[in-house]
# Entry
Amino acid sequence: MSRVGVIGIGHGVFGRRSDATVQELAFEAFRDAMTDAGIERGELDASVIAAVPEYHKQRSVAGVVQEYLNLNPLPTWLTEVACASGSAAIRTAYMAIKSGLHRVVAVIGCQKMTELGTAEILALMGRVGEVQWESVFGTTFPGYYAMFATRHMHEFGTTREQLLEVAVKNHHYGAMNPNALFQKEITIEKALASDPVASPFCVYDCCANADGAACLILADESRVSGRDGKVVWLDGVGSATSPMSVLRRPNLVGLPSASEAARQAYEMAGVTARDVKVAEVHDCFTIAELMAYEDLGFCEKGHGGRFIGERRSYIGGDVAVNVDGGLKAKGHPIGATGVSMACEIVGQLRGECGERQVPDADVGLTHNVGGIGQYTFVHVFRRD
Amino acid sequence: MSRVGVIGIGHGVFGRRSDATVQELAFEAFRDAMTDAGIERGELDASVIAAVPEYHKQRSVAGVVQEYLNLNPLPTWLTEVACASGSAAIRTAYMAIKSGLHRVVAVIGCQKMTELGTAEILALMGRVGEVQWESVFGTTFPGYYAMFATRHMHEFGTTREQLLEVAVKNHHYGAMNPNALFQKEITIEKALASDPVASPFCVYDCCANADGAACLILADESRVSGRDGKVVWLDGVGSATSPMSVLRRPNLVGLPSASEAARQAYEMAGVTARDVKVAEVHDCFTIAELMAYEDLGFCEKGHGGRFIGERRSYIGGDVAVNVDGGLKAKGHPIGATGVSMACEIVGQLRGECGERQVPDADVGLTHNVGGIGQYTFVHVFRRD
# Structure
């Protein structure tokens, strides 16, 4: 069967975007992706929208975006799997193309996070945990991941400093990304001294909500001729689930959905963890990035703290991770994040990332987690 | 390429289901569909969930359903396009199978509508219209469709009686459906005398919110051997969009998304409107069913009122429409509706519908509208 290629990427500025509605954010990213692809609307067959609608005043997000982008009467659909919605959209677009139903599909992740107050958002996010037996007792998102961190520290001796080294790295690279929410370096001392959130986390362990949008144009192999230098192939799409209730998980130091999704994606693409030069992983909290190193096979289980301590996830290390700033510094517009990750990997594989460019990047990966790990999507991208 | 077949259907009771959470509703339908298909969980490759999460206390609906159905670590994703979410889920499952990524996929539409109060639901539903320029001025769902009805009456002389004949028919058949919310006949006099909602609509012009779930098991042609008598093929999947803002529509007497989706589905399946023996159409309001007759080509534009008046959409007429009671009498759990429609058509094509069975049903269709027509999905099913 023929391959699916990425022929265009577009990415807006992440942050408190009180200047733009969700459809305006979507338009910014879409316009740039279409320009990048060098195609007209008439060449598109469908769009897929990723968003978590409940944070918006405007519901039926796919419909309002489709109209604002002047894409009627093309088909559209929205995918929602919490913070992994963007990757689920990419996966369904991949299926749409491989099925022969469509040839060129726009994937648009777009999210407003600042229309609601912080307390309201935190309460809504708690409902992305298991409501009947868990979040009803007060577990919040930081609380869930704080449990993972506590257990990781207990079992493997992971330290507070190692956790916060993730934030230091991601702010370091975020400072080089003009689309990032936080474009400034931080020190480990400053991070350690920040306000507590949920023990052991302080403010700098946590990513920040942001408004934002990103767009990918995917196309069937037959539609990518003449773009040889610029096409990046989506060669592996892995997806798996874990029980939503953490009380039904085998342990709290990794995400079973992530290791299984990675296994699938590596196998489909015919690569191993060692082949990956650049990765975008889901660092919603510092511990999440350490667990990702382990679940993706970049290091052994329990060695995540040492991996960042030895700077092996910096450019020049084993694999460059979150060199766009990650969720931590770039910001996390939950419906857009998976698409944003893919944009960065495509940019890296095309060698267009300027001062944060990873040398010789030929294989890249995205690792996008929904909720507290009930969903993980791992996608492997490659240039020829 | 090989065909996609429906090998199992399951359908719960629609109504005020205070006895069940959303995952319990999903389980009822899933269990029945798996029994019907005669397969075990180990033979499934993935699930697709359809729901509109914002009406639930529990968010991340796909995750909680996946766990409750014991389907971890299989992939899952949720599709949301308002009231057409169920059909979008079927469409993405179809793509998953045709793409070669998965071979057997469960599609589960599940929705709680009674966790919120009526006023809160009405306000949320208004946000499925265009918020910036329309619903902010007070348009509600009944209000939008009332405009369509008013214009249809003005242009084509459609009468109040013709509109309410739709409700009379759908209650007539709903009385034969043990899963329907309202299992009782009504008279045109009773309908005309019911309380006003939004002029010209009264209560009996409007469908009712309900909790409920339905499930389809779809499989690749290679996985359906030995089921020859029981397999129903999904041969046409049409999908199109209209501007969400009614002020950008060419007219108010039909849905451009519906006629375009029908055109695609007929072409894919190699059938015409005349071949369709049984149809499930989106009768969220009485006018919607009349517009569906016209948009699907069952009659000419403007003749919908006459079509129902002459009982041509009853069993024994040109095409039997909504013989499970439709949204009107069966109830409308918005995420489940598209899947429920497909269950009825599959049951009809298998000849299993008892007193509401349509004779010689070999080609059936579902017409599922999202919002106020910004999305329509038309699916054509056939038995060999």
